[in-house]
Amino acid sequence: MFDVWKNVLSEIEETIPHSAFTTWFTDVNLVSEVDGKIVIEAPNVFKVTQIQKKYDKLIQEAFSHNKVEFKEIQYIVSNKTRIKPRSREITLNEINKKVYKDTPVVDIEHSIKKFKTGLKPNYTMDNFIVGSNNNIAAAVASAVIKNPGGNRYNPFFLYGGPGLGKTHLVQAIGNEIVKNNPNLKVLYMPTSQFFSEFVTLIRKQKGDDFTKKYQDVDVLIMDDFQAIINKNASQEAFFNIFNDLYQRGKQIIVTSDRLPDEIETLDERLSSRLAWAGAYDLQLPSFEDKCAILKAKAEYDNVEIEDEAIEYIAKIVKTNIRDLEKEYTMLLTWAEVKGVTPLEIINSGGYSSNNSDKSRNIVTPKQILQAVANYYELSVKEMCGKSRVFHIKNARQVAMYLLSEELGMSTTNIAMEVGVKDHTTVMHGVKKIREDLKLDFTLREQIASIREGFYA
Q1: Is the separation of the CB atoms in 210 and 181 below 8 Å?
Q2: Which residues are CB-neighbours of 105 under 8 A, at least 6 positions away?
Q3: Are 87 and 25 in contact (CB under 8 A)?
Q4: Which of 113, 157, 396, 431 has its CA 20 to 30 A from that of 370?
Q5: 3-state DSSP call for residue 455?
Q6: How far apart, in whole angstroms, are the C-alpha atoms of residue 83 and residue 43?
Q7: What is the strand order of the sheet 72-77 is part of?
Q8: Are 97 and 90 in contact (CB under 8 A)?
Q9: pTM passes above 0.85
Q10: Integer-rounded Cα radius of gyration of the chain
Q11: What integer pLDDT is reported at residue 410 of this predicted model?
């Protein structure tokens, strides 16, 4: 039966885009087939939900093509994802002892007795929720994990605003690489720590000790690289470390809150090198993404929270994933203190949200239209007119998309707001922007800037 599953996966891979297959079917496995019931497992709630929603029919057809008779297909979350996280730092030596019991300890201990990864084990790919806001970056992360140091995604430059999961994703990459290759040395380093250590050792005239630290590193992860602004000496040190590691085929991963060429005073040579393999961003999560994140977190934490309570949190938090998780934690705490369910405390009016003022001051359609028009240097009247000029039409479609995503307006109502007669025009416009966002990073930046404007 498991050979049949390989055939099913092969058929699906030929049917859908490779990026979609990599995103949704990595770590998806057939568990059993008993009495016509097929059980398939995925690593988290979001994947289970999305696969069932988007690909159930395709999976059924693939089984039928392989002459498998079945009554139903059930999708479940893998038990492996329900392990409670630990908060303290993990070393390669610990991973070797706890996870790789069959690996000879002597082969690893020789080179890593004093080496610490800087990684926290609670950051994993299993609990990193993949959605429309981060699926491309997650697919690249999977490729880096499979082939660290491969030329295609080296360096891997990840950027995005605060609280969107950059640190989680790059530390998850590090943990997965260590798990798959316990002999490799992975070093996670916040840029502020890099600079602090550099200054300390230079003052002590031990500059050589600083560079030696990185000579044996196989994977270097530098977080919050924008912190290196105006620090010319440390930039030069990193430039030399970068060149040495890259020439020896070592993996380099860098995160920042902006693109390399947007980091003021960053050396042009370094800026160019960081973007050699492209730059990949994390966007604000959609309403559906936020719901999936909260459901997965609740399952991971083994707590019960009603769907209506999850939707309430997803609706009121308009900022980032960090704030979303803070709101979730606060609601659960209030519910525990009051001895009621999360939804009951919301309905009772006894819950004071950090985002209450923001949620009740939700932007209006007119504010969204004005924000989009201002960004594209148009008047609202001009944007909502009948012009077919590309930049005006594009702005109009962005406005349609934001009215749909931010306010959940119907296509009919959106058509009235933007001045088009047919609601199918709105459907086409919203769909086009959604599709373009998958690969158009400039458009992603534009929409993120517009969103920041009306939620500032």
Answers
A1: no
A2: 96, 97
A3: no
A4: 431
A5: helix
A6: 12
A7: 29-34, 37-42, 72-77
A8: no
A9: no
A10: 24
A11: 85
How many other C-beta atoms can be found within 10 angstroms of the C-beta atom of residue 419? 14
Both tokens assigned to 437:
């966002």
Number of other CB atoms surrounding residue 309 within 10 Å: 24
Residue-wise pLDDT for 17-68, tens only, equals 765 777 778 778 888 888 889 999 987 776 787 788 888 999 999 999 888 8
Q: Which residues pair with 211 in a beta bridge?
A: none
| Terminal Cα distance for the chain, rounded | 54
The length of the chain, given as a count of residues: 456
Q: What residues pair up with 133 in beta bridges, in sequence order?
A: none
CB 155 within 8 A of CB 276: yes
Q: What confidence score (pLDDT) does residue 148 get?
A: 94
344 — pLDDT class (breaks 50, 70, 90): confident
Separation between Cα atoms, residue 47 and residue 340, nearest integer Å: 30
- Edge-to-edge strands of the sheet including 156-159? 186-190, 219-223, 251-256, 156-159, 279-281
With 70 as the cut, is the pLDDT of residue 357 above it?
no
* Residue whose entry in the numeric block shows the structure tokens 């790919």: 125
Amino acid identity of residue 264, one-letter, is E
| Maximum pairwise Cα distance, the chain | 73
